[in-house]
Amino acid sequence: MAIEGLTQEQVQAAADTVQVHKFGGSSLADAFCYRRVARIVTEYAGASDVVVVSAAGDTTNRILAIIAAAKKPGDTAAILLEQLEKFQLGLINELLGSDLAQSLCQLSNADFERFRRFIRGEESISRDAELLAYGELWSARLLAALLRKQGTRAEHIDARDFLCAEDAPEPLIQEQVSREALLQRVAPYPGTRFIVTGFIARGLNSESLTLGRNGSDYSATLVGSLLDAKQVTIWKDVAGVYSADPRKIERVVSLPALDWSEAEELARLGSPVLHPRTFQPVNRERMVISVRSSLKVENQQTRIGQFEHAEPRGKVFTSLSEVVLFKIELNDKRLVDQLDELDLEPIFSWTEPEKHHQYLVFHQNHLDYISRWLEQIDNDNAVTQIRGYSMVALVGDRIQETDQYTTFKLQLSEQKVRRFGLGEHGNSAIAILEQQLDSRFLNRLHSQLFNYRRSLGVLVLGRGNIGSAWLELFKQQRDRINQVMDVRIIGIANSKRLWLDYGGVELNAWSADFDRLARPYVLTELLRELPNAPYDELVILDLTDAKPIAQLYPSLFANGLHIISANKRAGSAHESLYHEIRTIQHEYKREWLYNTTVGAGLPLNYAINDLRAQGDEIRSISGIFSGTMSWLFENFSADTAFSDLVAEAKERGYTEPDPREDLSCQDLVRKLLILAREIGLKLDWQDIEVNSLVPEHLRDISVAEFMQRRSELDEPMNEMLESAAKDGKVPRLLASFSVSEERRVKAKVGIEYIPAGDMLANLIPGENIFVIYTDWYSEMPLVISGPGAGKQVTAGGVQSDLNQLLGRLSAIS
Ligand code: ADP
Ligand code: ASP
Ligand code: MG
């Protein structure tokens, strides 16, 4: 090919070396991103490669907002311009040394001056493209300057200097003219990296044009094809094309390869990952396209090309939350002819011959253009525009042969499907829905299509009674659980040592292995590292009684962990910490389950939450919430000294190491707080009236001394027993709270005298009882009773929480 002003060798050399890289707005969102792009351009691009850039961050949107605001009264446009100017000049100043920055700022100031004249009405701009073009121009100019500053030879090119097109909703590129102009510009300068503005082109009358939103992808393949490039790399903020839009769908999978036709279909269906026309200019024999991440260069990428594949497979799920549907009267022959002139392919169309209707579905972006066309053609109401429709589609070669196709169709049968069909090339299944798309529906559909079993890493803190019992239980339950999610224990820790293995620890001889393999650790340091564990979700099982761990809950949530606690310290923390825990939990959308903190394995929280979910209101809960106190009081009689019972209970391991923890009712206060908070009441320690059983003089002494002097407990206890007996009653340690109509809460913990025949007076020692009055259970309470402690039932309760968690995480919301 002979080109004026260039030798044949120059033309050839340009074609041989050139590769095109494209960086979108998200790759140029701030100064840090620019530096990263500059590094990629020097490290990953050859010396004569061409780089196509979009406007930085959301500059295009900002310019559009300024144009819209300028049409209205008020100073919004000026304010928006000021913000844009600050952003752009900020980038320049941050990236370039003072001299370079000064000259670039001067250029930009002249541009902004033009915007100002436009806003003041002193300069009319015939096309939005004239102003939109600045976005890409600023990026190209700045990136070239940054590269030069770093010692790389680079120049910027305004695409309007070479890319010539005929104006249309999809501008028609004048290839020959454009190619020559581009080669004249770049071929004489091998060894210079040219930074070209994406998105824009020049019209036949030298007017500015755009190639449509996200048009820089198209610019990149256009430039590639004009230069006969072998490779175009589209650098995005995503590591290639995924099974769905990661902004809408939670657990997408990345695709190493995509066929031309599949990528084309995906783009045609309006997926924002590639402009619909990206593949039009591509010579498939010669060119390879990669989509990869500019944020994480080392990540996988998607190569788009011609690949042999054995089996057809649905690869990408895509959706449009709003499409425009047009109903056309086929009887109107004139209109049918005029349709050809629309010059725009619908995303999907079908006819209903019996009704003489054709339906055309368009992308929302084309609404303005089509509306203008409709006004022109005077269609006598033969076209009806229908809103409120959406689209979902599954893209993959020979889609109809896949199981996913069947799943897709089946899952959609419960939706309001207006039309279901195949794309023209059989590589997409498309459904037009008469409904809005909600994220839950999309996520569910995606996970069903890609049948993705998610993984959960479990870190067990506390390997005491409950921890050990739970690990044994988990061992038995593992196979069943793993059908729901891939659940692995990634670590077991006591207060000093941790056995960590991200691959999942082997549980067969876990106790001996722990002794052998556990290493000293610091929880706060571990926390920083944990988010890197290769799991979709992580949960901490806090099976300790440690206050310092409860204090870490906010940062556990903030580091992305869910929590299952048997530890009461967080749920009963003082209001300030409790509030912080809840706030951070909600902010990071984490789960927190703690069913065993009250009543061990008893289904208390299920009952309460289920009643509330049905519409009932809890009025009061009272009862004996402590197994220890239940044991002590049910065995206490005139024949036995209370203090001896305390000693025996301690001996049997029924009490805390310091029995005063139980006797002072702290444990009960904790449970009461947790219960009250569970039903949404604001309650703190000082709101609870507590009558401790530990006399003042026994409070500040050592445990040993207390045990020695324990008989000093007996006199007041015997007095209690006797005075209760006078009325045929017995003393019991009760905890209770009640809520008045005005939602005032009364909560107390202390001795009450109960008629000897009452159920509260006749528990099996150790038994817990919860008496729940609600709006509906007002005559007769709902009573839940049973063992409120014990390692087996508690481990079972922890397992129940894990099951709940799995249910929530796998249901995908
Ligand atoms: P840029 O302007 O940087 O070129 P965009 O932000 O316009 O890039 O497009 C990339 C975005 O496309 C991604 O951030 C992602 O949210 C979205 N996207 C939609 N569908 C997909 C998909 N299947 N795979 C990857 N990204 C997708
Ligand atoms: N800056 C343009 C847009 O935002 C083009 C592009 O990003 O590709 O649409
Ligand atoms: Mg974009």
Protein described:
The protein has 813 residues and is an alpha/beta fold. The chain folds into four domains: 55-227, Acetylglutamate kinase-like (Carbamate kinase), CATH 3.40.1160.10; 316-450, VC0802-like; 455-590, NAD(P)-binding Rossmann-like Domain (Rossmann fold, 3-Layer(aba) Sandwich), CATH 3.40.50; 604-789, 2-Layer Sandwich (Dihydrodipicolinate Reductase, domain 2). The chain is built from 26 helices and 31 strands. The strands form five sheets. An eight-stranded mixed β-sheet has the order 3-6-2-1-9-11-12-10, with helices on both faces. Strands 22-21-20-19-23-24-25 form a seven-stranded mixed β-sheet, with helices on both faces. Strands 14-15-13-16-18-17 form a six-stranded antiparallel β-sheet. The protein is elongated. The two termini are 58 Å apart. The mean pLDDT is 91. Its cofactor is a metal cation. Keywords: Amino-acid biosynthesis, ATP-binding, Kinase, Methionine biosynthesis, NADP, Nucleotide-binding, Oxidoreductase, Threonine biosynthesis, Transferase. In the N-terminal section; belongs to the aspartokinase family. In the C-terminal section; belongs to the homoserine dehydrogenase family. Homotetramer.
